[in-house]
Specification:
The chain is of the alpha/beta class. The chain has eight helices and seven strands. The strands form two sheets. Strands 3-4-2-5-6 form a five-stranded parallel sheet. Helix 2 packs across helix 4, helix 3 crosses helix 4 and helix 6 crosses helix 7. The longest helix is centred in the last third of the chain and has 16 residues. The structure holds shikimate-3-phosphate. Shikimate-3-phosphate binds next to loops.
């Protein structure tokens, strides 16, 4: 069990592992504020993620994402549940910032589950085009190393949002 009362809870991990859904529910149950860094980026840019990628490219998005993560330090430690975008841990500065004052929880899912869930919502520029399964496999391999910095990991395959949240709550003392 990890004492989490003075730590933000940060949910990280690949696209479509349920970070936002679990984060919202966890925040609600623990009476914390919920912040989704993708939504912060969209609000700041006044554009959807897909439009940001199309109009300005991925590196511009990564800059805005790092700014959103840096901005989390304005909130008192222990007041937040945060869902990050799937690529947030690629940058060292983000990993460092997120690990400061936070417990970092990696959500995972089987590649076929990611494929199924991602197919339901066409909002992810990095998975667009042909052979999404191959893209998922390649990106998962590429990111494995970055994701390994998390404090713990929870497999969401075949689980409901509530089950995932209860699992997180079972590992933390609030
Ligand atoms: C990305 C994941 C997305 C979003 C952007 C890039 C990634 O967030 O930040 O499309 O690089 O994995 P979700 O993980 O919430 O889909």
């Amino acid at each position: 069990m990890i004492e989490a009362d003075k730590l933000n809870v940060v949910l990280a991990g690949f696209m479509a592992t349920g970070k936002t859904a679990a984060g919202k529910k966890l925040a609600c149950r623990q009476e914390r504020c919920f912040i989704d860094t993708d939504r912060v980026v969209e609000e700041t840019a006044g554009l959807k993620i897909r439009q940001i990628f199309e109009q300005y490219g991925e590196s511009y998005f990564r800059e805005r994402e790092s700014e959103a993560i840096a901005g989390l330090s304005r909130y008192p430690a222990g007041s937040l549940v945060v869902a990050t975008g799937g690529g947030a841990l690629i940058r060292e500065e983000n990993r460092r910032r997120l690990k400061n004052n936070s417990i970092l929880i990696l959500l995972t899912a089987a590649p076929r589950t990611i494929l199924y869930r991602a197919g339901k919502k066409k909002i992810r520029p990095l998975l667009e085009g042909r052979d999404t399964a191959a893209k998922i496999k390649a990106l998962l391999e590429e990111r494995e190393h970055y994701y390994s910095c998390c404090d713990m990991s929870i497999d969401t395959t075949g689980k409901t949002v509530l089950q995932v949240v209860r699992e997180i709550e079972g590992k933390l003392v609030f």
